[in-house]
Amino acid sequence: MDIKPLRYFLAIAKNASFTRAAEQLNVAQPAVSMAIKKLETELGLTLLHRADRKISLTDEGKRLLLHAEKIIQATDDALLEMNELRGLNQGEVRVGIPSMLGSYYFPPILMAFRHRHPTINLKVIEGGTWQLQKMLEDGELDLSVIVAETLPEGLETHRLLKEEMRVTVAKDHPFSQLESITPDAFFDEELVMFKEGYFHRRVVDRLARETGKSPKIGFETNLIPLIKSITQQGFGVSTLLSMVVEGDDQLISRPFNPPIWLDLGIAWRKGAYLSQANQAFLDFVCKQGHDSENR
Question: What family, per the record (predicted)?
């Protein structure tokens, strides 16, 4: 089987459109249509529903998609490894980093890596932990930082650091007079939260379920400066990693009772070939995490 029609099929499945798939592949739409028609003829199966210009996968198409994703990924890994054996290092790292870590933990690491490896191109994608994890599993990222609560079977991970989630309030908030904050007391307050999909929000949602409380969310935003500003002005309370509030004299942070600690790691697809650039980045980041824990 020619692999090119599988690439076309995968692009159509992801875009639900022949036109958008052709644009993504940078080929003419008739070429995409002909390739898919030939693939269906070769397999003796209908892979796509084409009713009313709405493209969707048939049951047979859904089954093929599972194989196509693995075949394309394995082929790309093989080509990359063969190129590197000929000395053709692509020199690109695609890494996903959640916003809190991207703003407070990773900037000096990224700059130090860039200084050591100036020819390697760093492509940093910011997003929610679970969105980044899905992109990693789909091959859209090479590496991603994750919260290592439950590790999917298809990923491997290396622990970077352990960080505490702390209740964050304005300086004149009553919580500032307490040594620690119970989940019950936290959920009695109006909250300033990240949107769903970010580990910050998932930790709070899980804590609410365990406590039997319904969070009273007054503000939702993924902008850390805005979360801090709203909290500082007394319009709600939040919870942020200790690294985010450390040294901020405009906010007060207190631990939960009991404390909430998160294991943060960097992950990659199990069995996938890591390019020389990705392996160099992984080794560098893991060493920084090891050094920070030993300080």
Answer: Belongs to the LysR transcriptional regulatory family.
Burial of 233 (0-12, 13-18, 19+ CB in 10 A): exposed
CATH number at residue 114: 3.40.190.10
Alpha carbons 265 and 159: distance in angstroms, whole number: 4
Q: Which amino acid is at 70?
A: K
Same domain, 190 and 57: no
Question: What's the chain's Rg over C-alpha atoms?
Answer: 23
Per-residue pLDDT reduced to its tens digit, 236-254: 999 999 988 888 888 999 9
Same domain, residue pair 121 and 182: no
Total domains in the chain come to 3
CA distances from 135 to 2, 10, 50, 132, 141 (A): 26, 15, 27, 5, 6
Per residue in 36-45, pLDDT (tens digit) is 988 889 889 9
| Alpha helix (H) residue ranges in the chain | 3-15, 18-25, 29-43, 59-85, 99-104, 106-116, 129-137, 183-187, 199-211, 224-232, 242-245, 276-294
